[in-house]
Amino acid sequence: MRVGVLTGGGDCPGLNAVIRGVVRRGIADYGYEFVGFRDGWRGPLEGVTMPLDIPAVRGILPRGGTILGSSRTNPIKIEGGIERIERNLEDLGIDALIAIGGEDTLGVATTLTEHGFHVIGVPKTIDNDLSATDYTFGFDTAVTIATEAIDRLHTTAESHHRILICEVMGRHAGWIALHAGMAGGANGILIPEVPFDLDEVVGWVESRFKASYAPILCVSEGALPKGGDLVTKDQSLDSFGHVKLSGIGEWLAQQIEDRTGNEARTTVLGHIQRGGSPTAFDRVLATRFGLNAIAAVKDEAWGTMVALQGTDIVRVPLHEATDVLKTVPIERYVEASAFFG
Ligand code: F6P
Q1: CA nearest to 321, candidates 20, 99, 159
Q2: Is any ligand 1 atom within 6 A of the Cβ of residue 174?
Q3: What is the C-alpha to C-alpha distance for residues 107 and 216, in angstroms, rounded to an integer?
Q4: Of 72, 100, 169, 322, which is best to mutate to test ligand 1, by the most ligand atoms within 8 angstroms of its C-beta?
Q5: Which tens digits make up the pLDDT trace of 50-83?
Q6: Where are the alpha helices (DSSP H) in 161-309?
Q7: In this structure, which residue's CA is closest to atom 8 in ligand 1?
Q8: Which tens digits make up the pLDDT trace of 226-249?
Q9: What domains sit in the chain, N to C, each tagged with a CATH number?
Q10: Do the Cβ atoms of 106 and 7 come closer than 8 Å?
């Protein structure tokens, strides 16, 4: 059996741990051969590969990023893209493909499955917004980084009696803001699922100052005021049609300064949340996903994705991960709001 492996979309701590799990078990237990595809779907689309054997995966467990490279190439948007992939996979003698990615990458994997190709999916995103899995690897690392940042913001905010806003990633789902905000003791958390009322946010800030503490707000990049629009960097779209977000933190700081007369500053964590070494939780989850993905190849469970449910790794149909985005339920937000203000 010749198995192709690719990593697509935004990178994520733990990708290398998945690749290592797949290759180590695949060679040792099943005697498979592996082909690494470069830069997400660009690899199979253009036939760009790299060797993927035991030496290639040595020492990569704690390393961030992906040894295969990644991209947001969308073959569905390219005329004849899927047919080109099918031809290349056939020419390279690939019997099965393991696609490690988020909503977009797994959406393409679902299309390939519908064309009859043998695909197994592995869920990946720091945003934790894929359905059918309780957690995606990379999320715990992103939350840990954001929590450490909020801890640090507390002390400088206190020294200067300022409002400090921490803007984190999360395009449509506020999981990172919710968890990092709770763990870091933020005085307000703003997420895309619950449009915020500016007067209420100003109220939280004022009550925090009255208690002689400096307010910290944790804001998802996709958060938006009631009746307002998303704040974007510019109008450009990537090949999956996503705008570049970021700017809500700055906008909020300005509004709060204008209304309270207190100084406000914003820290945008951006790609720092995605870079560097994965936490132990993410290394274990990613490794288990890798081991189970190659077992799914062995069982010919085509069109499925490995997922975490409770403490078990299970198999679910690929489309279950991508049909509906897993957003923050309102009860989780209400729970966190006990500490607002
Ligand atoms: O999809 C994960 C994600 O981290 C989003 O939260 C964020 O909006 C996006 O990636 C940023 O992507 P890029 O690195 O392509 O700008």
Answers
A1: 99
A2: no
A3: 37
A4: 169
A5: 999 999 999 999 999 999 999 999 999 999 999 9
A6: 175-184, 198-210, 248-260, 280-298
A7: 171
A8: 988 877 777 777 777 787 777 999
A9: 2-137+278-322 (3.40.50.450), 140-274 (3.40.50.460)
A10: no
